[in-house]
Write a structure and sequence with these properties.
Elements: H1 5-21, H2 61-73, H3 80-90, H4 95-102, H5 106-127
């Protein structure tokens, strides 16, 4: 099956969305300071059940597999700035912050993003 550029961009957007939905508990990352004691509740308003609960849709195993495959496609792009452009677009950033981040004009950044997607498409279709 031959992948189109639209399917590649959609898969990268799905990968960014899935990565955002993965659970990240508050103390799951290494910390430089702090302690292991639980947080003390000082007020009755901070007690359990006072705030509204937030329902988080945890991605399925299939979503995680597709995310990993989409992220793996970025290695076909040789230029790190082009990978950054693609990933920031997949995360939903507008062109202005992307251009500031990579130091390019909008037209150049867009051209390089299109070229990077075409590079990914050629590499994937060549492997199949």
């Amino acid at each position: 099956m031959v992948l189109t550029t639209t399917q590649i961009v959609d898969r990268l957007e799905l990968a960014a969305s899935t990565l955002r939905r993965l659970p990240n508990p508050p103390r799951s990352t290494p910390r430089r300071d702090g302690n292991t004691w639980p947080q003390v509740i000082h007020d009755v308003h901070e007690a359990y059940g006072y705030n509204k609960t937030q329902i988080r849709a945890v991605p399925s195993a299939k979503d995680i597999q597709l995310m990993e495959e989409g992220i793996d496609w970025l290695r076909y792009v040789p230029e790190p700035d082009d990978r950054k452009i693609l990933w920031m677009r997949a995360e939903g950033f507008c062109w202005r912050p992307i251009c500031i981040q990579v130091g390019l004009t909008r037209s150049t950044a867009h051209r390089r993003a299109v070229a990077a997607v075409l590079t990914i498409q050629r590499a994937i279709n060549k492997r199949r």
